[in-house]
Automatic annotation (TrEMBL), chain A:
InterPro entries: aa-tRNA-synth_II/BPL/LPL, BPL_LPL_catalytic, Octanoyltransferase, Octanoyltransferase_CS. Pathway: Protein modification; protein lipoylation via endogenous pathway; protein N(6)-(lipoyl)lysine from octanoyl-[acyl-carrier-protein]: step 1/2. The record marks K146 as: Lowers pKa of active site Cys. Gene3D superfamilies: Bira Bifunctional Protein, Domain 2. Belongs to the LipB family. This is lipoyl(octanoyl) transferase. It comes from the Eukaryota. It comes from Arachis duranensis (Wild peanut). GO terms for biological process: protein lipoylation.
Automatic annotation (TrEMBL), chain B:
It is found in: Mitochondrion. Binds 1 lipoyl cofactor covalently. The H protein shuttles the methylamine group of glycine from the P protein to the T protein. GO terms for cellular component: glycine cleavage complex; mitochondrion. GO terms for biological process: glycine decarboxylation via glycine cleavage system; protein lipoylation. This is Glycine cleavage system H protein. It comes from Arachis duranensis (Wild peanut). CDD domains: GCS_H (cd06848). Its cofactor is (R)-lipoate. The keyword Transit peptide applies. Pfam families: GCV_H.
Amino acid sequence: MGMRVLRSLEVLKLGVVNYLDALKLQEKLVLDRKSHRIWDTLLSLQHPPTYTVGKRQTVHNLLIPQSELEQIGAELHYTQRGGDITFHGPHQAILYPIISLRDMGIGARSYVEKMELTMIEMAAQYGVKACPGQAGETGVWLGERKIGAIGVRISNGITSHGLAFNIDPDLTYFRHIIPCGIADKEVTSLRRETHSIFPPEEIIQEQLISCFARIFDYDNLIWKEDASVVIDGTE
Amino acid sequence: MALRLWASSTANALKLSSAASRTHHLPSPFFLSRCFSTVLDGLKYANSHEWVKHEGSVATIGITDHAQDHLGEVVFVDLPEPGGSVKQGGSFGAVESVKATSDVNSPISGEIIEVNASLKETPGLINSSPYEGGWMIKVKPTSPAELDSLLGPKEYTKFCQEEDAAH
């Protein structure tokens, strides 16, 4: 049993980022990670109001006409991630890990389980007891209420997309979709589920990053401040 | 052709001395199905966990038992149309499981002559029968020499053990 190699994670805190800009950045980082130009990287961000569908293009789960999206201040994007339709918006903490599952020696199932655990631990810090979904209902739940969603893409063993944890987003946006294609289930948020006093949101996002780093067993976190520079630098 | 089973993945974790010794050490069928991925003789393997079966001018391609086990229950399979082509190491489709879409790469280059239409209705075939009913595409290889660069069953078994031991 030799010495374990130190596992480093580069963390980019990006603030609020347009969905397509974040997608372009992820595509570049996936290529960089695949060719070993960068370490495992974690993007921490939020999106303006955005609906997205996964590879199966289940746009039938959008309940308002696409022409009305602009009126409610939202965009719609088609993606290659797994999972059904979902909503992203301000006050929802998003993590997009760009990591090598092969180097970590785990597969999709184990990766997604750890992503669920990350959000479960996050919720627990505020006294909220959430659990993983039943079979076929990946995500993080409190009974019939979903507090965290997952949708991932794995390409040559490198991950992109990731998780979305509801701190305090405007939940009315979820009324316009059948979230994740599961009817009769509600969406909730940390705000809804606890009377705890919240620190500034940036702190909550950092806590989520720490949960991720702990569960994925990273030894060394490299925080990139002023990460908005990275977005502007992508073509 | 008789097919020999090689244990992979957990053989290393259990510190079994050789794959063939699994029958001596396993206490129950449940233990067997939980811990061991099947690796078949007579196939070639890519380190991205796809297999290829070369029979004359046709090569059949799918993903391995190790791959399906690590993916979870497959709910959707995205396959190309026949008539397209694949390059060695290039992606030809994807599978979705547990809200994750995973690209599937071709171990060899060739022309796609057939795709498994059953996977549209029954994507779970990839889990229940990764080497038979869960086959994904059939190609006409354009560079048969590429098969030599792939892993044999023993090498692939070892590769899986090493990969799983990494975490």
